[in-house]
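Exercise 7. Given the encoded structure of a 370-residue chain, write a plausible sequence.
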C-alpha cells in the first residue's frame, strides 16, 4: 500500500508534528505533499527519508495547484490520499478525485466551536465548502470526542466519522534531568529558578498575553515561550511594559520541545479553543503540572492533582501557577496516557487505510459483476 499525505503547510504546529510522529512509525510506504511553506517539519521528514513534495500553492484561488497535486497523485500511483488541515482537505479531496483515487481519508485536527484553523466557522462559504468536499472522501478522522460532536453538528453523518486520538512517542517526551540541566544552562536560567512554560503558535487565538499579564504576580519566576508567529513582537512589547521583559525567554520554533519541557516546572495553556491539545499531551507525558483553559486530552486523563482547568484571566492563571509550583510534584506521567502511544495510533491508522481500500475494492467489484 502507498499513501500520500496532503497537508496545508509544514511549520511546527500540532497537526504537522502529529504527521511527523505517525510517519516515524509507519508500516506502509508514504510520501507527503505540502501545499505551501515547507518549514521545519519538512526538514525533519526528509531527514527520516520521507519524500516531501512542495506544491507551491499561492493562495486559495490558485486552482492550478490542484492540477499539480492531481498530477503528482497520478504519477505516484498512490492507493490512499490522506489530507490534513482545512485547505488541504478541501483541495486535496478534489485533486484525489481528479486523479482517480477514491480511497481518501481526512483528519480533522482543528474544528473548534468558533474557529477552524483561525477561520470563523460562521464566515460565508467555510462550512459549505467543507461539507461539499467531505463527500468526496471515505471517512473523516476526529482527534477527540469534541471534534466528533462538532462534525455531527456540521452535518457529517456519524457513519463517515472515525474517532482516532492523537498520539506521541511517550519515551521521547519523558522527563530527562540531564536535558533539563543542559537547556537551562544554554538559556542562562538558574537551576533553582521556577520556570513556567508555554508552547504553541504565537497567535492571538492562543492568548499568551494572559501568561505575560500573570507574570508580574509571580516574582522570581521565568516564562519560557516556545513557538513563533505574528504576535511575537506584540508579546515582547507587552512583557517590557509589564516590567517582566527580563523574565520572559522567547526561544522561537524548535525541534527540541521534549528537552525544553524537561527544563520547565509547569505549563501554562491559556488557549480557549483547543480541539485536542497536542502540546498538553506532550507536557503530560513529561510529567508537567498544567494550568489550562481548554484541552480535551487533559479532560480525558482527569488528573486533578496535576492539571487545573481555569478561566483565561491573569489573576486566575497566577493563582493556579502558584498552587502547582508549590506542590513539588514528581515528574511521572498520569495514568491512562498509554492510550496515546503513537505506535498504537499508527497501527489503528493502518487499519483505517485497509478498511477504506477494502470497501472501495468490494463495491467496485460488486458493480462490475452486475
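Solution.
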Amino acid at each position: 500500500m502507498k499513501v500520500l499525505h496532503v497537508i496545508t503547510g509544514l511549520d511546527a504546529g500540532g497537526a504537522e508534528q502529529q504527521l511527523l510522529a505517525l510517519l516515524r512509525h509507519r508500516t506502509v510506504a508514504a510520501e507527503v505533499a505540502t501545499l505551501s511553506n515547507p518549514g521545519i517539519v519538512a526538514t525533519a521528514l526528509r531527514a527520516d527519508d520521507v519524500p516531501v513534495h512542495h506544491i507551491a500553492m499561492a493562495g486559495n484561488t490558485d486552482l492550478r495547484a490542484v492540477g499539480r497535486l492531481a498530477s503528482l497523485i497520478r504519477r505516484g500511483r498512490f492507493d490512499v490520499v490522506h489530507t490534513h488541515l482545512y485547505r488541504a482537505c478541501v483541495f486535496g479531496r478534489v485533486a484525489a478525485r481528479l486523479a482517480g483515487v477514491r480511497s481518501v481519508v481526512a483528519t480533522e485536527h482543528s474544528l473548534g466551536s468558533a474557529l477552524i484553523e483561525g477561520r470563523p466557522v460562521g464566515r460565508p462559504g467555510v462550512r459549505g465548502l467543507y461539507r461539499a468536499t467531505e463527500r468526496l472522501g471515505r471517512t473523516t478522522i476526529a482527534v477527540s470526542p469534541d471534534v466528533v460532536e462538532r462534525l455531527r453538528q456540521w452535518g457529517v453523518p456519524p457513519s463517515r466519522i472515525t474517532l482516532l486520538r492523537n498520539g506521541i512517542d511517550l519515551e521521547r517526551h519523558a522527563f530527562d534531568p540531564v536535558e533539563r540541566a543542559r537547556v537551562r544552562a544554554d538559556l542562562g536560567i538558574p537551576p533553582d529558578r521556577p520556570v513556567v512554560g508555554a508552547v504553541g503558535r504565537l497567535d492571538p487565538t492562543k492568548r499568551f498575553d494572559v501568561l505575560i499579564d500573570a507574570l508580574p504576580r509571580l516574582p522570581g519566576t521565568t516564562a519560557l515561550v516556545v513557538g513563533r508567529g505574528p504576535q511575537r513582537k506584540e508579546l515582547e512589547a507587552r512583557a517590557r511594559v509589564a516590567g517582566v521583559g527580563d523574565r520572559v525567554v522567547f526561544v522561537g520554533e524548535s525541534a527540541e520541545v521534549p528537552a525544553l519541557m524537561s527544563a520547565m516546572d509547569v505549563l501554562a495553556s491559556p488557549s480557549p479553543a483547543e480541539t485536542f491539545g497536542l502540546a498538553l499531551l506532550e507536557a503530560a507525558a513529561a510529567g508537567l503540572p498544567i494550568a489550562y483553559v481548554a484541552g480535551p486530552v487533559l479532560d480525558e486523563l482527569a488528573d486533578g492533582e496535576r492539571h487545573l482547568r481555569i478561566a483565561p484571566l491573569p489573576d486566575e492563571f497566577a493563582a493556579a501557577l502558584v498552587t502547582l509550583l508549590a506542590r513539588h510534584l514528581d515528574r511521572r506521567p498520569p495514568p491512562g496516557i498509554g492510550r496515546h502511544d503513537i505506535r498504537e495510533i499508527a497501527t489503528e491508522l493502518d487499519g483505517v487505510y485497509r478498511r477504506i481500500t477494502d470497501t472501495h475494492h468490494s463495491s467496485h467489484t460488486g458493480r462490475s459483476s452486475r
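Remark. The chain is about 40% helix and 15% strand. Students should compare their own answers with the one above.
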